Amino acid sequence: MTMKSSILMAAILLTATGASAAPPAEAGASEATNTQAAAADDKKICRTERATGSLTRRTRVCMTAAQWRDVNARTMRGVSEMQGQGSGGQVVQNNAGGG
Questions:
Q1: 46 domain residue, yes or no
Q2: Max Cα separation, the chain?
Q3: What does DSSP assign to residue 56?
Q4: CA separation (Å) from 38 to 31, 32, 42, 52, 66?
Q5: Considering its fold, how many domains does the chain have in total?
Q6: Is residue 50 part of a domain?
Q7: What is the pLDDT at residue 74?
Q8: Mean pLDDT over residues 79-93, rounded?
Q9: What per-residue confidence (pLDDT) applies to 41?
Q10: Structural domain boundaries, residue 56
Q11: Is residue 8 part of a domain?
Q12: Secondary structure of 61-89 in the HEC alphabet?
């Protein structure tokens, strides 16, 4: 995992824990929060990514915040699947006393 990915994951986790620790909001405030969240999801975020195998080639990728979250979730699922396949995809159980 690259350093950028690690930092991004740490920021997402900190944001998620901060949101769960927040006190419950009033009904009117939740509507305003939902509107702000929808606007934040539609905000376009651009990132510059390095091309694999090149020190100088870079590509600019622009997506909405919701799309970046989806990409991040798919990446994490893929990493988990690869790690499971690397271990044979099976959970090893201790069979002490089996006969």
A1: yes
A2: 65
A3: S
A4: 11, 10, 6, 34, 9
A5: 1
A6: yes
A7: 96
A8: 73
A9: 79
A10: 41-78
A11: no
A12: EEEEHHHHHHHHHHHHHHHHHHHHHHCCC
Output the six-digit token pair for 9.
């994951």
Q: Give bridge partners of residue 64 from the DSSP assignment.
A: 44
Tokens of 42: 């539609």
Query: CA nearest 15: which of 67, 77, 69, 71?
Result: 69
**Both tokens assigned to 34:** 């939902």
Residue 59 lies in a domain: yes
Residues 6 or more apart whose CB falls under 8 angstroms from that of 66 comprise: 41, 42
Distance CA 77, CA 24 (A): 31
pTM of the model: 0.47
Tens of pLDDT along 26-78? Answer: 556 666 777 777 777 788 999 999 988 888 899 999 999 999 999 999 999 99
User: What pLDDT shows up at residue 85?
Assistant: 80
What tokens appear for 81 in the block? 């699947």
